[in-house]
Amino acid sequence: MKLHVAQVAPLYESVPPKLYGGTERIVAYLTDALIAKGHQVTLFASGDSHTKAELVSHLEEAIRLNPAVKDPLAHHIIQMAEVAARAHEFDIIHFHTDYLHFPLSDLLHKPHVTTLHGRLDLPDLPYVYRRFAHQPVISISYSQRKPLPFARWVGNVYHGLPRDLYRQGKGDGGYVAFIGRISPEKRADLAIEIAAQAGYPIYIAAKIDKADEEYFEKSIRHLFDLPHVHYIGEIGDADKNEFLGKAKALLFPIDWPEPFGLVMIEAMACGTPVIAFNRGSVPEVIDHGVSGFIVQHVEEAVEALRNIDLLDRTQIRRVFESRFTSDIMAENYLQVYHQLCGHKPAERRIFPASAQPEKNLQLQSA
Question: Where in the chain is the domain with CATH 3.40.50.2000?
Answer without folding.
Answer: 4-160+325-355, 176-320
